Amino acid sequence: MGVGEPSSKWKFTDINKDYAVCETYCRILVVPTGIPDNEFIEVSGFRSKGRIPILSWRNRHTGVTMTRCSQPKTGMSRTYRCKADEKMVSLIQATNHHSNKMNVLDARPLANALANMALGGGYENLSYYPGCELKFLGIANIHVVRDSWYKLRDLCEANTPQKVEGDTTVATSSWLSQLEATHWLEHLSTILSSAASVVHMLEVKKESVLLHCSDGWDRTPQISSLVQILLDKHYRTLRGFCCLIEKEWLNYGHKYGDRLGLNFVDFVFKDTERSPIFFQFLDGVWQVMQQYPQHFEFSEDLLLMIAENALSCRFGTFLFNSDYERNCAKIHEISPSIWTHIMTNFEKFLNPFYQPGNTEPSVIYPSTSVYSLQFWSNYYLRNLTPNPPPSTSTYVQLGRQMHSQIRDLKDQVSNLEEETAKLRAELDQIRNGDRPKEGAKDSALIRSKILQSEIYEEWVDMQHRDGEKFPSDSTERMRSRGNPYSEGDSSTESKTPHFE
Question: Is the pLDDT of residue 385 over 80?
Answer without folding.
Answer: no
